[in-house]
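Weekly structure sync, notes
Attendees: PL (lead), two postdocs, one rotation student
Agenda item 3: pending single-chain targets
PL asked that the sequence for the first pending target be pasted directly into the notes so everyone works from the same version. It is reproduced below exactly as submitted, 229 residues in total.
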Amino acid sequence: MKSTIAKKTEGYGYKYTELADINKYCEDNGIRYWQETETSEINQKDYIITYLVENGETTKHRGCQIVDAVLQGIKNPVQEYGSSLTYCRRYSLLMALGLATEDDDASSLTQQNNPTKEDAENYVITFGKYNGKLLSEVIKDSWYKNYLLSGNDEYIKKCIELLTGEKMPTEKEQQERLELINDLNGLVELTNTDYEKLLAHYKVESNADMTTEQLKDAVEKLKEKLVWE
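Predicted structure, written out during the meeting:
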């Protein structure tokens, strides 16, 4: 079974895998799926839930949070929400399937993906709820910064690295963080943990602000709590 799918379609400033290609992959490997949205009891945000049916077994996978729709320029909230929903469906399905995406060619290694500090400071977001805003301002929203880092635009990722002075996580590290955050959210619900107190303990405003080590620590502590309850 292959574990990569090539990115083909241009949009939102990055290349992404077409949903039709993922469906073909599922068909070739005898996998069926369906998706729905689910509102988290913790933060009241909507997430994509993917159900995979493989070898007669059904598994549930929480995926991306759907970005809030807002009025931006000529776009209306319905269009914005629809665009976000389509992106989240596709990326959440890739996450559930455990698929990586591969570059179409060597362009990702050329200078177009190596911005300067000046490029980063002048980079303007051209999509989503922050359309028309400078990236340097947008990344003050920690959740949206992580949303950008979970996408396929290497140029934006490198701009963020230049602006923050922080080494950006690899795709594998980012996937690990997503899984840890999902595990943490689930354990908070299972153990009836006070979410605000948990965040206060780690001195952060949201789980997106937690370091990977903090996420691991919180998950382990809640697993221990679950065993003793």
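Discussion points:
- The mean pLDDT is 76.
- The beta strands are 4-6, 9-11, 14-16, 32-39, 46-54, 57-65, 100-102.
Action: rotation student to compare against the earlier draft before next sync.
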